[in-house]
Amino acid sequence: MKILILGDIMGPSGMRAIKERLPELIKDKEVDFVIVNGENAADDGVGISKKNLDEILAAGADVITSGNHIWDQKETTEFIKSEKRLLRPENSLKPVPGEGYGIFKSRNNKKVAVLNLMANVFMKKSEDVFETAKQFIKKIKLKDNADFIVIDVHGETTSEKMAMAYLFDGKATALIGTHTHVPTSDNRIMEKGTAYQTDIGMCGDYNSVIGMNRDNSLNKFLKESSTKKHFPALGKATISGVLVTADEKTGLALKIQQIILGGALQERF
Predict the structure, then answer these.
(1) What residues does each domain of the chain span?
(2) Side-by-side strand order, sheet with 239-246
(3) Model confidence over 14-41: pLDDT tens digits?
(4) Strand, coil or helix: 101
(5) Catalytic site residue 69?
(6) What is the rounded distance in angstroms from the CA atom of residue 205 to the CA atom of residue 207?
(7) Domain spanning 2-264: which superfamily?
(8) Nearest-angstrom CA–CA distance, 7 and 123
(9) Which helix (H) or strand (E) holds 222?
């Protein structure tokens, strides 16, 4: 079983890379299931539109996860009610539309549970992420309710993501971090068989400041002339994420491989 997990799609350049490269990546790697974080896919780099959602799914994604920017496009509160393949964080403050996890069918007819969590430290106010995780573990069990379980933890601090990985070790196929838009180099299989990487980066233009125009961002830090709002960098995007190979008998990970495809970031490897 091969599960492809891609980091935050960042603005128009990230969307262009997904539409152009994801179908061939799925074919080349013989991928069975695709998860993409789409919370920055909109033209202004925050939130996700219905057009973005349709194009990401058409490119081959099976599930779209999100995070703190999920509600930045007003239309999302409506279409998320009927589109179960778009997840918002399970620990979002209630009441809120949409679902935080789901169980989906893969290309090879396996049941894949996907859980979307948002960390608490330096993030928008949400319910206790560890309590929410514990409740999920009680409800959804590997090789009982689902053949495979994948968790996207959208968070700022490395320690929170690492601690969460130990909570899920042996209980999930993979736990990966998103949000910081910078890929870490700590991908590994943990002691009890769960694949982990602290942050899988973004699908966007890395000649930028975490996907936003670098000149405007730098001028903001220098307190020099800049626009009031950040706006996305529009150069060639790198697709960034991981490919997890899992054991169909146990549901646990056998291998985790970093995916760096195209754009400025790949040229540094």
Answers:
(1) 2-264
(2) 63-65, 33-37, 2-6, 239-246, 253-261
(3) 999 999 999 999 999 999 999 999 999 9
(4) strand
(5) yes
(6) 5
(7) Metallo-dependent phosphatases (3.60.21.10)
(8) 18
(9) helix 214-222
